[in-house]
Structures are given as C-alpha cells and as structure tokens.
Amino acid sequence: MDGLVHIYTGNGKGKTTAAVGLGIRAAGSGMKVLMIQFCKGGSTCEELVIAQLKPAFELLKDKKISKFTWQMTEEEHKQMRENTLNLFNLAISSANNKDMIILDEIMAAISAGFIDEKLVFDFVKNKPSHLELVMTGRNAPEKLVELADYVSEINAVKHPMTKGIDARKGIEF
Ligand code: ATP
Ligand code: MG
Q1: Which of 31, 32, 39 is nearest to 15 (CA)?
Q2: Which of 128, 132, 158, 160 could form a disulfide with 3 if both were Cys (CB 3.0 to 4.6 A apart)?
Q3: Distance between CA atoms of residues 45 and 66, nearest Å
Q4: Nearest 5°: phi and psi at 77?
Q5: By percentage, how much of the chain surpasses pLDDT 90?
Q6: Which atom of ligand 1 is nearest to 161's Cα?
Q7: What is the pLDDT of residue 7?
Q8: Rounded to the nearest whole angstrom, what is the distance from the C-alpha of residue 104 to the centroid of ligand 2?
Q9: 69 DSSP assignment
Q10: Site to substitute for ligand 1 among 7, 13, 24, 105, most atoms within 8 A of C-beta
C-alpha cells in the first residue's frame, strides 16, 4: 500500500486528538507508528496510553519545553531551533523503519521559526513511498497543503474558553 500525506489544520479543537486516533487505528492494523510532538512540553494524558502500546506506537517529544514562543529569550529560541531540528532528524532517520509518522504541531514549529518550511517540504516530497505521514497544526503553509492527499481544516465554531472555561485534564491535555 502506498503511503499518503495527511494534514489536520484550522483553529478549532481536534487536530492532535484526530492524529492520535489515526495512529491508534494504524497501530491496530499492525502498522508501526511514531508520533513526534513539536513545540509542546509537559505531559498529556494520551501519553499514558500510548506508552502501553510500545513498540507499536511510540511517542517522542522534548519534555523540557515550558514556555510559549513569545516568552522566549533569543538564547532560548536558538535552543528551540536546535532541539526542533534534532527531533525532525529523528523523523528522517525513522522514515524507513516506521509505517506511519505523525509530526504533531509541525505547523506551529514552522510558524514560530523553529524549523524551515523548506526542510519539511523536502521531507514530505521525498518520503519513502510506503510511509503514511500525518502533520498537524494551525496555519498549514500552502505549499504543504498542495503536497498533501488529505487536508482537514477544523474550524472553531464554538470553544468553551470564550465562556471562561479553562483547559480540562483528560479533554484538553
Ligand atoms: P486537541 O489536542 O484537543 O486535539 P488541537 O490539537 O486541535 O486540540 P491545538 O492548536 O494544538 O489544538 O491547541 C492546544 C489546546 O488549545 C487544546 O487543548 C485545545 O483544546 C485548545 N484549543 C483548540 N482550539 C481552541 C480555540 N479555538 N480556542 C481556545 N482553545 C483552543
Ligand atoms: Mg494540537
């Protein structure tokens, strides 16, 4: 089966959770899945479940990230660029050994200037033909949208944050 390219974008909730759901479906079919999370540190509850699915479904991220982009000093920004490149290189080096790679929040990493859009574009364009590639994040660049086979834009029709309801454990993280 030839692998295709997916993008989940838009400003509504559901991009990462859709990618996790797709990863679980793929792992259930016997595919080897690697999810790499960019830009976000800390822990989310889905990690606890994904950890039980090793080695069918593996998750890599930089847990040390604790600041938003706009709070970073120039030095921290530089460090983020280095760390992002290291994570991205793991995707490149795993591409032949995995059946699905999920680059979660890669669009945010591009928007923040942590990684060159060209590098991502080249990876997508030259990916091994068997590889199913999934990317998420707001503001997907047009060039990546053109390359993709599935592009789903999730719009925020309503979100409870506007009513003052904070992020809830198990739902938002
Ligand atoms: P999820 O991880 O729940 O699938 P997401 O990946 O679509 O969400 P992100 O852009 O990664 O959303 O944002 C991360 C967090 O911001 C999520 O917890 C999500 O609930 C929240 N969020 C998403 N869309 C909105 C919105 N329109 N307004 C406020 N918060 C939002
Ligand atoms: Mg997300």
Answers
A1: 39
A2: 132
A3: 17
A4: -65, -40
A5: 91
A6: 29
A7: 99
A8: 7
A9: G
A10: 13
Q: Rounded to an integer, what is the distance from CA 22 to the centroid of its chain?
A: 12
Structure tokens that stand for 1 in this block: 């089966």
Task: Tell me the CB-side half-sphere exposure of residue 52, using CA atoms within 13 A.
Answer: 6
Question: Positive or negative CA dihedral for 114, 51, 123, 17?
Answer: negative
Q: How far is the CA of 47 from the centre of ligand 1 (A)?
A: 17
pLDDT digits (tens, 9 = 90+) for 33-81: 999 999 988 899 999 999 999 999 999 998 877 778 888 899 999 999 9
Domains, in order of start, for the chain: 5-154 (3.40.50.300)
pTM: predicted TM-score of the whole model, two decimal places: 0.95
